[in-house]
Amino acid sequence: MCDEESDARKASSSDLSYQAVPDVDREMAAQAYQEFELEKFEQCASILKKLMSRRPQDSKVMHNLAVTEYYLSNCKKTEIFNKKMVEVCRLAHIDVQDLESLDDVDSCVALYNQAIVMFHLHQYHSAISILDKVFQFVEPLEENLARNVCFLLLELYLCVYQPRKALCLIGYLETMLFSNNKNCGKSNSKEKDGQKEENGDSVNEIYRRRLQLCKARCYAMIKTSKACKREIKNLMSSGTQAQNIPAFYLKSQLEYQRGNYRKAIKLLNSVTLPTDISKYIKETGDFLPTIYYNNVGCIHFYMGKPNLGCHYITKALECFESEIASIADSREGKSSARPLHLMSTSTQHQLMYNLGMQRLQAQRYLEAFKCFKQVIPSYHSNPRLWLRIAECCINLHKPDNTAQFVELKNVSFIKSMVGTGPHRKLILNSSSEKSSADIPKTSSPPNSDTPSLHFALLCLKNALHLVGENPTSESLSASVPPSEEADSSEESNILSTLPSNFVQGAEILSLRNSILIAASYVSLCLGDVLLAHEYAKSLLAQPRISGAHKFLAHLYAGESLLLMDRITDAVEHLNYQCTSDIELAFPVNSSEVSLKHQTRFDSKLNEKNDDGSRPVGNVPNWFPNAISSAKFITQYNLAVAYAVREEWNKSLECLMQTTSTNGKMPPRALSLLIYVQLHQGTAENTKAYVKQYSTYKST
Questions:
Q1: Residue 214: pLDDT above 80?
Q2: Could you tell me where this protein is found in the cell (predicted)?
């Protein structure tokens, strides 16, 4: 049974005595308490039911009866327990949604039990809002309850990635646990025998190890590797193999964060699993085989091997489903199928999210879209999830755009010929036919079942709403070198992106830029040029932009203005000298350690790992992938703008700059070149280009 559940049992046994309570009721309450402590839940429930008939409006009796019946069901009937707790709060005049008026210490027991249920149902923020209020009464609370409240709040802070708050709470717990124990030991040393002192030491050791593990997790979150390694070393110096399993996994995670992937896998493989895995899972709630396969899959993802990562994540899902099937009771509903501490309903969604990421990187876009769609109910407030869904839709619409800008290779530039002699006409292949046919009609409504561009735009709007279209003053202050004063308020400017780690400061700016540029592209594809221009203009107004995003923003702004017949404004964007930098890496300050792991992969397009594998930051289908390609696209768009304005000489000059060193020209530029030359009346030059690029043979 997990610690939180045992804590709930201790907390639920609050003394029922208060003024104006008859002696008979006091005796029944004391007897029920004794039966509960002996784990005789049926006898306890029987007594409490009799007491309930005598005191039908007593919220404390109703609370203790609800807890006892919950234990009778082996903590499986969570739905029924929640309904009873709502009734308890109603009788006690407790409004869980508004706890500002809470001033009764006796209400803390019921609130703590509700927070435990919320924790196991992964309603972390709701549980924190309750415990933050309960923590204000921690001093007058009974010692066990106060300790349990602090430990639960500590776990919640770690679950929502607030490591600095967790470290402060750890310091408070260390003072409360170990300082108080020393003082009590001195004052009551004569009253305690050797066996009790030994039991106290063993309990203190359990708490000490638990706090050390939480410290290591905090240091891993804030990427303080030295402090994390120190805590892990202290943990592994004592304890059994089973007790050290979390330390081994945490050490592997630390090596993973540092980019030592093979060492991380080696550490995972060195873990000795308990002989009875099912028993370990029931006691701790940790699905070790599932965790192992998931971690190995994530490591292979960052090694640039997403297909192998898919294999391991799929195995993790299979292990989780088989273990849950052996624990769950199929005769009951989902919420009553397994004990509270095993209700890891989000574990499957976490694995599904990871599987979606692997498939997206493996360019299996439709499969990735289906994975992401399944996890929307759990992670609908994650802007990254909406961005990933939009990326699936965009890549399904057009997975690669290099065909429009590379040289013709064994492809006939002439589609067919009609007529004979002097009346013979050539019908050219249009490079835009396929792309225009791929664009869905604007009349079709967004459908979550279909990965369309309409749905992509809807997802991007959701993501932008969650991030905010304009940077706040806090995010701007977090993007500059932080001072000592800023460190204390750093967590006030974080963005939760569960199930992945939180983002803050410059990471939020980078995420916003990615959403804006994708929204501009999708709007342009859908023909909404006004919206495309607004998104591009908003991106250019951001305080920090990567070279690639700046290049694309000017490009999309120029194209949208061109389609709005604002040629002069379009030329200003297309003439902008931004093609010297097309780096994908987001510009970071030297003090921004939060982006250190990300920039390791994005800084160089041609970087490889030590073992020769491709890092995840290397996007294989990103185009333009060279300065020359970027300049070609800019010159081509400028040529189009000049052609629309009928400045044929300027258009021709731009087109001639798109010719490669071997004299070849991409199909889009060639089509425009022929069009411009025909307008200039240079038919002979046009015929020469047609003959040069034509591989057509008449039948």
A1: yes
A2: Cytoplasm; Nucleus
Walk me through the domains of the chain, giving residue ranges and CATH numbers: 273-378 (1.25.40)
Report pLDDT digits (tens) over 87-130. 998 888 887 777 776 667 778 899 999 999 999 888 888 999 99
Q: What is the pLDDT of residue 471?
A: 67
Contact 228, 249 (CB under 8 A): no
pLDDT at 213 over 90: yes
Q: Which residues make Cβ contacts (< 8 Å) with residue 471, sequence separation at least 6?
A: 479, 508, 509, 512, 542, 543
The DSSP code for 178 is: I
**CA distances, 99 to each of 104, 107, 197, 361 (Å):** 11, 11, 40, 45
Element (H, E) at 6: helix 3-12
Report the C-alpha gap between 173 and 212 in whole angstroms: 12
Which of 284, 232, 211, 227 has its CA nearest to residue 5? 284
Structure confidence by residue, pLDDT tens digits, 362-391? 999 999 999 999 999 989 999 999 999 999
Point out which residues pair with 418 in neighbouring strands.
Answer: 425
CA distances in angstroms from 129 to 86, 100, 125, 381, listed in the order given: 17, 10, 6, 18
Are 127 and 18 spatial neighbours (Cβ–Cβ below 8 Å)? Answer: no
Q: What is the DSSP string of 76-116?
A: --HHHHHHHHHHHHHHTT--TT--TT---GGGHHHHHHHHH
> How does pLDDT run across 577-589, given as a tens digit for each residue?
666 677 777 776 6
DSSP 428: E
Q: Are residues 111 and 118 in contact, defined by beta-carbon separation less than 8 angstroms? A: no
Q: What average pLDDT does range 571-596 have in this prediction?
A: 67
**301 — pLDDT class (breaks 50, 70, 90):** very high
> In the predicted model, what is the mean pLDDT of residues 648-676?
78
The first and second tokens of residue 13, run together, are: 């046994």
How far apart CA 292 and CA 289 sit, in angstroms, is: 5
Please, where are the H alpha helices in 122-224? 124-134, 143-159, 163-174, 180-187, 194-221
State phi, psi for 583 to the nearest 5 degrees.
-70, 140
Distance CA 231, CA 174 (A): 15
Which residue would you say has higher pLDDT here, 431 or 106?
Answer: 106
**Which backbone phi and psi does 151 adopt, to 5 degrees?**
-65, -40
